[in-house]
Sequence to fold (106 residues):
Amino acid sequence: MAVMQQIQSEVERYPLVLFMKGTPQYPMCGYSSRAIQALMAAGAAALRTVNVLEEPEVRANLPRFSNLPSFPQLFIHGELIGGCDIVLELFESGELKRIVEEASQP
Fold:
């Protein structure tokens, strides 16, 4: 299935990928907004975002790809980290900053 390959390619090509509703500048749901704020505060400058509202095929198939039914979804080095709640927990513990810094290393 082409869309599954597209998702796989996206998470393998970029070290930090957030599938979200909206864009970093204009998040279209509170969960996406909180997740992007935490990631930016943790220094995720090289973050790749995918607006699932503009990619209906991705929006429909990402939950099957990741076994996570909700958005946003954060992937680091091809591995699903989790949704908004996990991102916020990692941010509050200080782990998100460390993870983002490691993922940003060449």
Q: What stands out?
A: The beta strands are 16-20, 48-51, 73-76, 79-82. The mean pLDDT is 95.
